[in-house]
Amino acid sequence: MNILIQNGRVIDPKNGVDRSTSLYVVDGKIAGLGDAPAGFVADQTIDSAGCVVCPGLIDLGARLNSIEAELAAAVAGGVTSVVVPPDADPPLDEPELADRLVHRAKEIRKARVLPLGALTLGLNGERLAELAGLKKAGCVAFSQANRPVTDTEALLRAMEYAATFGFAIWLQPQDYWLSRNGIAHEGEVSSRLGLAGIPVAAETIAVGTIVQLVRDTGCRVHLTRLSSAAGVALVQRAQHEGLPVTFDIGVHHLLLTENDIGYFNPHARFSPPLRAQSDRQALSKAAAAGLAAICSDHTPVGADEKLLPFGEAKPGATGLEVLLPLTLKWAEEAGVSLPDALARITSAPAAVLGLPSGQLAVGAAADICIFDPEATWQLTPDALKSRGKNSPWTGYMMTGKVKSTLVGGRVVYQA
Predict the structure, then answer these.
(1) 54: part of which helix (H) or strand (E)?
(2) C-alpha 99: how far from its chain's center?
(3) Residue 43 — very low, low, confident or very high, per pLDDT cuts 50/70/90?
(4) Averaged over 312-338, what is the pLDDT?
(5) What pTM, to 2 d.p., does this model score?
(6) How many Cβ atoms sit within 10 Å of the Cβ of residue 382?
(7) End-to-end CA distance of the chain
(8) Helical segments of 90-246, H only
């Protein structure tokens, strides 16, 4: 189908485009920007007056407890590609499981699914999974999700193996022994509320270990959900050394702190935990400088699992449908331009993945998000397509609403 998208503000951060123009889609790809390709006749015209037309969002962390509902939530949020952690049930530690997930996503015909294969069998942190087979089945990298590899020798061997074949490993840096009994950030708030704390050292010790192993092996590592100023400083030093280490930040860590726990609000329980204001500021500064990608860390949690005391509630919140408005909210607070903010959720995650997506260049796949940056809507459970209705922002007004989402030149969502 030939599609003409007209009258919108086209923003393509990767290629430095920011102007009002028309976009032409032919056979699932971007065929023209501004000038129509020769012989172009539109089968469908989308009027995007008052809207921003940008690359489809790429979310580096989204759990799909119900694949149909969560992929519908993704495209409703303008997300055209989702990276799925391997901590499903069962874990994605066999090629057949990864292949089945990719195949099912293609059948649903919504967002693209990019699975992370389990680094170790059963995510137990001991024996390596069949990495080569998982890669062939469509896994983009290998991860333990938020499960630890307590045996440092096992992690070293895994990184040596991955480096040999050019595989990337994604790790959430959190020392098992310092975090195993913790619930909240170790600080004034956790002390006042009587909650077991997780110190920043749990992150920095893990980052330090991982960086040293990268130095020894040359393995490419992506650190997921960094949460502290000290952690960011360690990664920056590694990057200045030229080590192949990247990181992302959950959007909630850019906007919330330990104080948002309030009086034991279970919707403010995350893994890693919300940290101090100084940590939030350092994370925001790193994101503003383009040092990190931003992700939703989408974790749909059942209502019953949140209607529990803080220490027993399951960590996480819904994120796919609020990644865009929360990123816009962060950008406004941090004084970040709209193109730069969109880069953190389009071209930056594409760079982490080593994929040519996240752009609107001629010849690129027509994964497109069209949104009204001024439209407001209230975040209520009924407004969400995700099975997970839990969010610390429930009841708040969101600014920024997706009007249309295209994946591979197909309109997969229209408000």
Answers:
(1) strand 52-55
(2) 21
(3) very high
(4) 97
(5) 0.97
(6) 6
(7) 20
(8) 95-108, 131-136, 152-165, 176-179, 188-193, 201-217, 229-240
Whether the Cβ atoms of residue 64 and residue 84 lie closer than 8 Å to each other: yes
203, 230 Cβ separation under 8 angstroms: yes
Residue count of the chain, please give it: 415
**pLDDT, tens digit (0-9, with 9 covering 90-100), for 203-214:** 999 999 999 999
- Burial class of residue 259 (count of CB atoms within 10 Å of its CB; 0-12, 13-18, 19+): middle
Closest of 113, 153, 157 to residue 137, by C-alpha: 113
Name residue 128's beta-bridge partners.
Answer: 120
Sign of the Cα pseudo-torsion (191, 194, 200, 202, in order): positive
- CA atoms within 13 A of residue 15's CA, in its CB half-sphere: 16
Nearest to 225 by CA among 387, 85, 27: 85
Helix (H, G, I), strand (E, B) or coil at 393: coil
Spatial CA neighbour of 374 closest among 345, 347, 403, 411:
403
**Residue 297 is a catalytic residue:** yes
pLDDT of residue 274: 98
pLDDT (0 to 100) of residue 148: 87
The alpha carbon torsion through 375, 387, 179, 240 (nearest 10 deg) reads -50
256: amino acid identity, one letter: L
- Output the six-digit token pair for 350: 């594409």
Contact 362, 369 (CB under 8 A): no
Give 410's strand partners: 407
How do strand 3-12 and strand 52-55 relate by DSSP bridges? Answer: parallel
Q: Exactly one of 297, 304, 340, 382 is catalytic; which is it?
A: 297
Pairing state between β 245-250 and 410-414: unpaired
The answer to whether the CB of 156 falls within 8 A of the CB of 163 is no
For 138-168, write each residue's pLDDT tens digit.
Answer: 999 999 999 989 999 999 999 999 999 999 9
For 378-392, the pLDDT digits (tens) are: 999 999 999 999 999
Question: For residue range 243-277, what is the model confidence (pLDDT) as tens digits?
Answer: 999 999 999 999 999 999 999 999 999 999 999 99
